[in-house]
């Protein structure tokens, strides 16, 4: 793989503000930073993302991958982020065919909003062969425990979503962002730069399992997604159609498996026992 | 006002699914419905929203208002929602000038996602004269209490956002949706159909106070927004520039006021007392 050349642009991730509390007292508080980053692909403006700004180069790369505008990291020659102007200049090796056409369709998605991801995200997904990853209750507990102990912007200032990539129960990367899709895309960008493919990949998110989250996980070759939150109907529908294991309400030792039951290993004893809930 | 003619399309809001819990037991669970609704304005396809589907006509109307594609409800002649085909047919009285141009710019926003709202939402907002609404701790407590006691899809199935419109401490409308912007837009549509303008309007949301939420509140003529969650940097910046009162972390009797301190009435005694936090 010929890795893209990338800047390592860094900016403060929190911002101190003065607030009034319920007693009328003035307090200092940290809130997450939020800044606009406009992606230019071969000098053509593509999109503006509102982001915390922790890993803009990985995020830009992951965005292109998850939108299926590029197939591999080495389709990109360089990514140059300049926070002074809020721009990520992406130079591809061979251009992106039909960029205007492929970014024309607009679907407004659920992830809290009326944001649109470019259409046709599902195109080509149906034929994806997901890896044979399975997961058991101990691994799930190790994952929620790791997240619980993770130092985070969220603990410091709230108002961000966290996503994490695991190889079985081993944390690979933890990313936070004001937009949870940015966090997933950042993980996708990082993954694409690793020399070895990930084994037993599991994606954790603090947010709901919406259809876009499930589609992005599948695009990243990940067959198991875990959320602290629940699932939407479209998220469930897409997970079922892709054979992806979707686990929600994962807190401490509890969880619910919504889809891909065959990937979940629950002990024979547990299965034989009447549900204790 | 000549009110638009509207259907009253109704669909089930939850959907029962089978899940496996951590003991390996199969359980039945309700999840929120999520369906695509494509808005056609004068037969031109505008956007597809993913929604719970509770009030598609109000949502469609509010979407057009909050995107500033129309100025008043009576710019619309009729809204016809057909869930069989997932379409909302909107007929305007006089067309929308430059629709293609005005929906061309794409900004991907924070509200959990990379969804884009059409650009230039801020255009024309700076000149908005917000009403002189003020709020005190008792009103805020009454609001959080009303929300806590509200029957909801959230309590039944989770995974939705709730928004509510208050006139001072009196609940006017409570709306839930899989996308929180849909909930806000639904409230905007309902508001625009009322014969009398709302007095002392306060908008409550379970979600974060992002820039779009603040902009939409201002567009709706609401000067006080309250959230159970926190605020983003852009949300704060927009609230400050508009003179809008932004209150977050509102749970029981506690809250933090991030912007528009002058609209918050906290007792003199409370102000004189050192912060008890």
Short structural description:
2 copies of one chain form a homodimer. The first copy, chain A, has 277 residues and is an alpha/beta fold. Chain A has helices at 56-66, 99-102, 137-149, 153-157, 180-192, 211-219, 233-242, 268-272, and strands at residues 5-6, 14-21, 26-32, 35-41, 44-51, 76-82, 87-92, 106-109, 115-118, 135-136, 161-167, 170-177, 201-205, 224-227, 245-251, 254-259, 264-265.
Structural account:
The structure is a homodimer of 277-residue chains. By secondary structure, chain A is of the alpha/beta class. Chain A contains 8 helices and 17 strands. In chain A, 25% of the residues lie in helices and 34% in strands. Chain A has a 6-stranded mixed β-sheet with strand order 12-11-13-14-15-16, with helices on both faces. A 5-stranded mixed β-sheet of chain A has the order 1-6-7-4-5, with helices on one face. Chain A has a two-stranded antiparallel sheet with strand order 2-3. The N and C termini of chain A lie far apart (50 Å). Chain A has helices at 56-66, 99-102, 137-149, 153-157, 180-192, 211-219, 233-242, 268-272, and strands at residues 5-6, 14-21, 26-32, 35-41, 44-51, 76-82, 87-92, 106-109, 115-118, 135-136, 161-167, 170-177, 201-205, 224-227, 245-251, 254-259, 264-265. The longest helix of chain A is centred in the middle third of the chain and has 13 residues, at 137-149. Residues 106-119 and 269-277 of chain A have low confidence and may be disordered. Chain A folds into 2 domains: 5-118, Ubiquitin-like (UB roll); 135-272, Cytidine Deaminase, domain 2, CATH 3.40.140.10. Chain A is globular and about 55 Å long. In chain A, helix 1 (56-66) packs across helix 5 and helix 6 (211-219) packs parallel to helix 7 (233-242). Strand 2 of chain A pairs antiparallel with strand 16 (254-259) of chain B, so a sheet runs across the interface.
């Amino acid at each position: 793989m010929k890795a893209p050349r990338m800047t390592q642009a860094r900016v403060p991730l929190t911002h101190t503000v003065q607030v009034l509390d319920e007693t009328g007292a003035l307090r200092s508080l940290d809130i997450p930073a939020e800044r606009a980053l406009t992606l230019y692909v071969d000098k053509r403006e593509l999109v503006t993302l509102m982001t915390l700004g922790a890993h803009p180069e990985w995020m830009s790369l992951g965005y292109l991958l998850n939108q299926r505008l590029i197939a591999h990291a080495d389709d990109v020659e360089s990514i140059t982020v300049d926070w002074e102007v809020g721009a990520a200049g992406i130079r591809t090796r061979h251009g992106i065919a039909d960029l205007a056409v492929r970014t024309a369709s607009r679907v407004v998605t659920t992830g809290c909003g009326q944001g649109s991801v470019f259409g046709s995200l599902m195109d080509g997904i149906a034929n994806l062969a997901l890896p044979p990853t399975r997961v058991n209750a101990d691994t799930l507990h190790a994952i929620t425990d790791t997240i619980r102990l993770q130092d985070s912007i969220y603990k410091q200032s709230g108002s961000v979503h966290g996503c994490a990539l695991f190889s079985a129960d081993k944390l690979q990367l933890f990313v936070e962002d004001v937009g949870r899709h940015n966090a997933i895309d950042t993980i996708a960008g990082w993954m694409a730069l690793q020399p070895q493919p990930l084994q037993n990949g599991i994606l954790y998110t603090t947010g709901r399992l919406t259809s876009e989250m499930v589609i992005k996980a599948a695009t990243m070759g990940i067959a198991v997604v875990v959320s602290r939150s629940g699932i939407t109907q479209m998220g469930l529908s897409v997970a079922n159609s892709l054979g992806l294991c979707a686990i929600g309400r994962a807190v401490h030792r509890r969880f619910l498996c919504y889809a891909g039951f065959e990937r979940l290993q629950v002990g024979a004893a547990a299965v034989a026992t009447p549900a204790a809930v």
